[in-house]
Amino acid sequence: MRILSFLILAILSFLPTSRAVAQAIGSAERPLRVMLIPADGGTEDGTKADFLPLFNAITRTSGLHFEVKTGQSYSSVIEGMCAGLADIAWFGPASYIEARDRDCAQLLAVEERDGSSTYYAGLFVSANSDAKSLEDLKGASLALGSSHSASSFAYPLAMLVEAGIDPLKDISAIRITGSHTNSLLALRNDLVDAAGASFISFERAVNQGDLNAADFRLLAKSDPIPNPPIAMRPGLPSNIKASLKAAMSTVHEDPDVRPESIRGYGGKQVDRYNTEAPEALFDKVVSTTAFLRDDYQAAILRKADASQRF
């Protein structure tokens, strides 16, 4: 009887431990929850397809498991992180700063291509537009993407302000379209005179056949913008954070991982993910968009509402 009792106790003590191990965060039973901002038109399948190869590769090399979803909007991803509904998020630079400043996000990695961690936004006009410079946009109408986007909202506005144009006074109408592609489509369809979008989004829309490059002309190019970062929830266990950093920083070196699986913004292949990128990389975003105080941004959105928001 003593031996039987000992065996029963041993089995009972082992079961909870096994269950805890099986349900550890990052396991197949309890995967790390990933939320992606809805880039380039906001289609869930399109944005998810961009990043699934990367997270699948990390699963193969590290044993960490992920559940990847696309948020309905930039703001939903921010709120999802802040509510603890996601463990990892792919943000735009501006939305990352907002989440970081609310203590909801900690920088994990920034994609690199050809040694660069930056990309560009542009202000586009129709190919037949008379505008030759930003100053010529006085009195024009403008399409912008999400108000949480750096390259389709904050930087296009910053470019105008730097050129001496006050978007509130000097732009006749502002349309908030929700995405880069929608803004470019509004321009193509003659609903606006100019549109703000990233070069990557423009290139992708052209490559997918949604736009004809010949219909557009780049009027002005932004300063470099930090690539959209991948961030993690600050409350994650320290060992999981360390494992994520190690896995993400080395996945491109694994001989069993195809280089085309290491992808980033716009589904483009990237060289690697830099987990040593400093927070200072995003300081320029803060200084460039400092004019977008809460009251000023609210005024921009009210102007957009008056112009019939898409």
CATH class of the largest domain: Alpha Beta
What is the CATH homology-level superfamily of the largest domain? Periplasmic binding protein-like II
Oligomer state of the chains in this structure:
single chain
Query: What is the count of helical runs?
Result: 11
Number of strands: 13
Could you name the CATH topology of the largest domain?
D-Maltodextrin-Binding Protein, domain 2
Write the layout of secondary structure elements.
Elements (H helix, E strand, L loop, with lengths): L1 H21 L9 E5 L7 H19 L3 E5 L3 H9 L5 E3 L2 H9 L4 E7 L5 E2 L1 E6 L14 E4 L5 H13 L4 H4 L2 E4 L3 H9 L5 E5 H9 L8 E6 L3 E2 L2 E4 L5 H13 L21 E3 L8 H6 L5 H13 L4
Helix pairs in contact: 3-4
Give a verbal description of the structure.
By secondary structure, this protein is of the alpha/beta class. It folds into 2 domains: 29-117 and 227-277, Periplasmic binding protein-like II (D-Maltodextrin-Binding Protein, domain 2), CATH 3.40.190; 120-225 and 287-306, D-Maltodextrin-Binding Protein, domain 2. The chain has 11 helices and 13 strands. The chain has helices at residues 2-22, 44-62, 74-82, 93-101, 150-162, 167-170, 180-188, 199-207, 238-250, 283-288, 294-306, and strands at 32-36, 66-70, 88-90, 106-112, 118-119, 121-126, 141-144, 173-176, 194-198, 216-221, 225-226, 229-232, 272-274. The strands form 3 sheets. It has a 6-stranded mixed sheet with strand order 2-1-3-12-4-13, with helices on both faces. The protein has a 5-stranded mixed sheet with strand order 8-7-9-6-10, with helices on both faces. The chain has a two-stranded antiparallel ribbon with strand order 5-11. The longest helix has 21 residues, at 2-22. The chain starts with a helix and ends with a helix. 41% of the residues are buried. The model is unreliable at 1-22 (pLDDT under 50).
